[in-house]
Amino acid sequence: MRRLASTCAVIFALGCESDELPLGGPYGGNTELYGPNDGGYDNLDATYRPPVPPRDGNIVFSDPPAWNEIFAVYLGPGTIGYCTDCHPEMSDAPASFTWLEEHGYVGGPDPLLTNQGSSCLTWFGGNMPPGTPVLSEEAVNHMTAWAKAGGANN
Predict the structure, then answer these.
(1) How confident is the model at residue 37 (pLDDT cuts 50, 70, 90)?
(2) Is residue 31 part of a domain?
(3) Which residue among 106, 117, 119, 130 sits deepest, i.e. has the most Cβ atoms within 10 Å of its Cβ?
(4) How buried is 28 (Cβ within 10 angstroms: 0-12 exposed, 13-18 middle, 19+ buried)?
């Protein structure tokens, strides 16, 4: 019994040398603090956002849809794509078109952005937005019509 008490006293004394939490802290772990990887972006917001459901069919599009309509309904803030959360380069429709064009996704009548399997968008088989895949037949139909009409920055 004395040996157990001595061992406990030594362990307690070694663990209380400073005001810091003991190794493991109150919830386990270690003394190193690591944050999320920012992926190279200065404006990282790692807050989980559940996918935004596709908007209802009450939105009136041009025929064929214009790029600014595509951006406003599917790619901009508060949309199913919410691209601007991670890509500050896509601040508005013209800027997003320019940025996507620089990366080879738009420009011309057969843009990669609307090609099944080549697009970065989940509703065309890609991996963006990250997290839960978003599938929208309405987005596919509108974006495909925009592309078939020439995929213009309008």
Answers:
(1) very low
(2) no
(3) 106
(4) exposed
